Amino acid sequence: MRAGTDIIAPVAFLVVGGFALTRSSLRSYRACVEPESKETEMTIRATWAFNGQTKTILGNWHRLWCLIFGPLYYLFKGMFWWALLSLITANGLWVGFPLFNRSIVLRHFHRKGWVQE
């Protein structure tokens, strides 16, 4: 390190709007804004009791994906009868299936042996 930078580096700060932010306060600010863990997500995960496999069965935007893709959403999830029913009824008359998507998907996976975490 050069002679002049060893004194400035520990005391480095950024003045924004009259407030001095040191490196430690920037780290704590980032920790508040960008959480490191994914526990804040509203996803629903399940474990299959047979072999312990875990899977995210519902994501954050499941109603939107069901509304946009309709029968293709249920095919992707492996729910073939619901895909056919969604196709025949025009996605539950456009709003029905997206509104009840959470209970439909949770019941389907529960009957298949998945245990919600």
Summarize the structure.
By secondary structure, the chain is of the alpha+beta class. The protein is 50% helix and 18% strand.
Which outline best applies?
Answer: globular
Q: Quaternary state, please?
A: single chain
Strand order of the largest sheet: 4-3-5
**Which spans of ≥5 residues are poorly predicted at pLDDT below 50?**
8-19
Tell how many strands the DSSP assignment holds: 5
- What count of structural domains? 2
Description:
With 117 residues, this protein is an alpha+beta fold. The protein has two domains: 34 residues, no CATH class; 73 residues, no CATH class. The chain contains eight helices and five strands, in the order αββαββααααααβ. Strands 4-3-5 form a three-stranded antiparallel β-sheet, covered by helices on one side. Strands 1-2 form a two-stranded antiparallel ribbon. A hairpin with a 5-residue loop joins β3 and β4. α4 runs antiparallel to α5. The protein starts with a helix and ends with a strand. About 10% of the residues have low confidence.
List the topology elements.
Elements: H1 5-8, E1 13-16, E2 19-22, H2 23-33, E3 44-48, E4 54-58, H3 62-69, H4 71-77, H5 80-88, H6 90-93, H7 96-99, H8 101-111, E5 114-116
Antiparallel strand pairs: 1-2, 3-4, 3-5
For this entry, give a set of tags.
single chain, 117 residues, alpha+beta, 3-stranded antiparallel beta sheet, two-stranded antiparallel sheet, 8 helices, 18% strand, globular
